[in-house]
Amino acid sequence: MDHNVISLGGVVVCEFKQLKENFGVFRMMCKHSLDKDSPLFIEVACFDRLSEICHEYVKKRTQVHVSGRLRLKTREYEGRKINDYSIVAQTID
Questions:
Q1: How many other CB atoms are found less than 10 A from the CB of residue 89?
Q2: What's the maximum distance between 2 C-alpha atoms anywhere in the chain?
Q3: pTM
Q4: What is the overall mean pLDDT for the chain?
């Protein structure tokens, strides 16, 4: 059983970018009705057939529901550590 699964719904804020033949990414925004001032922006990575489908259908302002594996990347920016979260998509509706 895979315990690293996340499911988010939101709206696409950046067009899908095909980075390689079978890989692409887009950014989405999620808002909660109780926290409208602090939306969550997260990158979604898509592989293989899912990447082909996203290239055709995922456009800016599209409503999406993404399920997949949560991934954390840590980087340094101006001497500070920054945590970037992203989702490796398994399904997109």
A1: 20
A2: 40
A3: 0.83
A4: 89
